[in-house]
Amino acid sequence: MGTVTKATTRATTAPQGCTNFKLRQLSRLVSLHCEPHFADTGLKTTQYSLLAHVDALGPISPGELARRMDLDASTLTRNLQLLLADGWVEMLPGEDARSRLVQVTAEGHAKRSAMKADWKRAQLSLNEKLGQARVQRLHELLDECLELLR
Q1: Options 3.90.1150.150, 1.10.10.10, 3.90.830.10, 1.10.3720.10; which CATH number does 41-149 get?
Q2: End-to-end CA gap in the chain
Q3: pLDDT tens-digit profile of 61-81?
Q4: Better-predicted residue by pLDDT, 37 or 6
Q5: pTM of the prediction?
């Protein structure tokens, strides 16, 4: 009879614990690992991610941006406030009087460009800590789960 390993046992038993808690716990630890790489920039990793999305997708309506980032409107509004206050993004008129578009300013584009090296160092450091193959598998699993939950 074959040897049962810890990995084999895990694969054949039902998940234990709260998935939501485990994901939040992992997210907090990843943030704690990455934040020091952004310490001198004035932005948190979440704000950098928002700036990067607006830069890549903008001009874009806040509603569409929230949908593309899987954020609720209030979270997006709260996170946009700092970027607006610092002049890294701006609101433009939309197609009608009630709509708006958000886009990166020249200063915001320069800020994102300057921070790309910080992001790269943070990602490489995380890859080193967890192992590049594990990070790749994690990304694949997260992408699959995101697709199923959408």
Answers
A1: 1.10.10.10
A2: 43
A3: 999 999 999 999 999 999 999
A4: 37
A5: 0.81
